[in-house]
Amino acid sequence: MPAARKSAAPAVERFFQFSLLGLVACAFCALADTGRLDLPSLAFLLAGVFWRGLMAAGLVKINIPQRIITIVATLYLVFYPLDYYFISRDFFAATAHGVCFLGVARILAARTNRDYLYTGALAFVALLGASALSTQIRFFGWLVAAIVFGLGVLTSGEIRRGFQRTTRVVAPVSTRNVWRLALVVACAACGVVLLTSGLFLLIPRTARAAANLFPSGPRVTGFTNSIDLGGFGDIARIAKDTRPVLRIKPYNTTLPPNLKWRGTALADFDGRRWSEHPTRDLIVPAQGTTMVADQLQRSRLDGRRLVYRVDMTDSDNGTLFIAGVPEYINLVVTPGEMPRLARDSEDSFRALPALRTPLGYEVSAQNGAPLPYPLSAGARQTYTRLPRWLDKRIPELAARWVAGDDREPGVPAEVGTDLQSARRIEARLHRDFTYELVRSSNVRDPLADFLFRTKRGYCEYFASAMAVLLRTQKIPARVVTGFQSGYYNDVSATWVMRASDAHAWVEAWIEGHGWMTFDPTPPATEPLTAGFWQHMAMYLDAADSVWQQWVLAYNPGQQIALAFSFRNKLKAMGADGFSGWPSLGAAFSAIPRAWLMTLVAVPVLALLAWFGPSLWRSWMAGHRMRKIRRGEGSVDDAVILYERMVDSLAKRGFQKPAWFTPNEFAKNLPGGEREAVDVFTRTYNEVRFGGNASAMQQLADLLKGIETGPAR
Questions:
Q1: Is residue 705 a contact partner of residue 676, using CB atoms and an 8 Å limit?
Q2: How many Cβ atoms from other residues are within 10 Å of residue 636's Cβ?
Q3: Which of 484, 433, 502 is nearest to 462 (CA)?
Q4: Tell me, what's the pLDDT at 580?
Q5: Which of 227, 187, 630 has its CA nearest to residue 467?
Q6: How far is residue 589's CA from residue 581's CA, in Å, rounded to a whole number?
Q7: How many C-beta neighbours within 10 Å does residue 335 have?
């Protein structure tokens, strides 16, 4: 049978290599989806995978000597420090570049089992890194694809190894071979369980602290506690970053649009950089709901209350983003944790200790203007302090603008007040300046360059300009960072703030009004328009929100809450035993539509994936048997009948060795089976090789007799 083995080995070899290449591609795509692998590196690796696929298919023939691989690897070791210090300037990025480069070289030159083992280990390391860094539900898709290709590598690799160890079949199927096959299946099953439970459930929960090892992620304005004018080189990338970072669930009613989610207030400015004023935070333990407003604030009747929950994908420095004037804050934490709630002199809140982990909190806030509390002399000095080196044209510009040389449309009549001055400066920046993602890192004085030359910039420039212009007029002002706009996801009934919604604006202290909010930045983008892809994105975001809350952040507290919720649902169905079961429809109607669809669709899809292929094969086999019995079968259908006969005998303990011909198999059976199988085999040869299609009906009848049992 060498010819049979020769025809099978190339097919197994191609299947093995395609599975291995698919595993590598899925692992590195999952890593790139975390944002830690840049697009050129991914494209380079996928190009190498594609080229190797062409080689495996026999469309391209290229052999790279091992010596060249060694030389290339040595040269890259020299290039690695250059990449780390001058190009990437990031350890993880430089290492990822090296892994991709050496991986492509190894993939193209792989010839031995050791090379393939190295390639598989490379894919596993990439998948492990993606599992530790990913917080999106998309990782689940990459993981499933990697498991599929990984099982393909394991099974085909075992068959391939069998072909490599022998050149011909010398023994029948033995118990040892059956155990080997069972061991392969068991290892594959254990691999699936370990990958899904270890990477998918364990690592995302326990490896959150590992994110602190990679602090050089993309910078987002809303998360920063400092602003460096001219130093924000990644602003264009941030503006296109649509990652959801905040999800807000209103409890009492829908939230008004275009709310500002206030994070950190910055008071100190040195001409280029805004930073927080050093103060001692007021720290209180977060034991349940914490009251953060005084009696006067809580007794206000002007405006309405906003009650909502905020879930952050990455808490970074622990800053809480709050809309309105907060009165109560409740940190949603894991039982056993003892977080602290810190409040600084700028009325900003933080959760301590600050870790780069998902964070949830609930807020009850007043949707109205802050109370006009008096400003101390020391605070007034802090909020009117100007940098030591300030372009002398800036105070002159502020004086001209607040003088009202040209009356701005819609400006109130209280000319000469601080409120009038602030509104005039805000209006001039709105009218005469343009929002644009410009880069001015090489400018010595970026603020003066923005006001007198380019007149173009992003929100940080507008907020900085207005705050400094107000300070030149002795009006206390500070820059605030946070989020604005976002979009409403009607599938999950939440407001979603993306990284691109990060924003900066100004708070000015006006006599008789207290701290008032001003936003001098003109609008930059159009709101999301409804459409098919936008609606699909909302469904994906809703699924990702469930993933964040019930997988990544799942804890014993949520487990208890889920149990109590289930108990309350049962009680709501009927207080007296099962008397309330008629209200089951009402209980289902209370479940959100997205949850209900998910609960129904997931089991159905799982059952189809598990039983669908076998049911389809059974139905097709039955359909062809019915055609044969109706006399509509062809000569080629004899093979199906013979395979069915062999399967029937195998169930009774008579296994046909692969090297036995049909006649040899029939003659080696015991007497109770030999006669019926011998007649069936002669009829089969007559139909299959003699072309006697009229004997198909007889062959089907003989098969029916064999399947019912041995001849008596």
A1: yes
A2: 10
A3: 433
A4: 42
A5: 227
A6: 14
A7: 10
DSSP conformation class of 276: P
Query: How far is 672 from 712, CA to CA, in rounded Å?
Result: 7
Do residues 187 and 154 make contact, with C-beta atoms less than 8 angstroms apart? yes
What's the rounded Cα separation, in Å, for the pair 635 and 493? 62
φ/ψ of residue 655, rounded to 5: -90, 130
Q: DSSP letters of 629-679?
A: HTT---GGGHHHHHHHHHHHHHHTT-PPPTT--HHHHHHTS-HHHHHHHHH
Residues 6+ apart with CB under 8 A from 478: 265, 266, 267, 346, 383, 467, 506, 507
Task: Show Cβ contacts of residue 222 under 8 Å, excluding neighbours closer than 6 positions.
Answer: 245, 261, 263, 321, 481, 482, 483, 497, 499, 501, 502, 503
pTM: 0.54
Tokens representing 168 are 């011909």
Q: Quote the CA–CA distance of 358 and 369 in Å, as a whole number.
A: 30
Question: How far is residue 21 from each of residues 103, 241, 440, measured CA to CA in Å?
Answer: 11, 30, 44
* Contact by Cβ (8 Å): 192, 147: yes
Q: How many C-beta atoms lie closer than 10 Å to residue 344's C-beta? A: 17
Q: Please, where are the H alpha helices in 134-194? A: 138-165, 175-194
Q: Show the 3-state SS of 395-421.
A: HHHHHHHHHCCCCCCCCCCCCCCHHHH
Bridge partners for 456 per DSSP: 434
Under the banding of pLDDT at 50, 70 and 90, the label for residue 225 is confident
Q: Please classify residue 214 by burial: count the beta carbons closer than 10 Å to its beta carbon, then call 0-12 exposed, 13-18 middle and 19+ buried.
A: middle
Tokens coding 560: 């208890």
**Strand 260-266 relative to strand 325-332: parallel, antiparallel, unpaired?**
unpaired
Are 13 and 110 in contact by the 8 Å Cβ rule? The answer is no
Instruction: Characterize the bridge pairing of strands 434-435 and 456-457.
Output: parallel
Q: Strand pairing partners for 284?
A: 341
Give 56-111 pLDDT, tens digit per residue: 887 877 777 777 777 877 787 778 788 877 777 777 778 778 878 877 887 877 87
Kindly state the tokens that stand for 467: 């705050």
Confidence of residue 507 (pLDDT cuts 50, 70, 90): very high
Domain ranges of the chain: 2-213, 221-518, 532-586, 633-708
Sequence-ordered list of residues with C-beta below 8 angstroms from that of 674, at least 6 positions apart, any chain: 666, 667
Question: How do 340-343 and 359-367 pair as beta strands?
Answer: unpaired
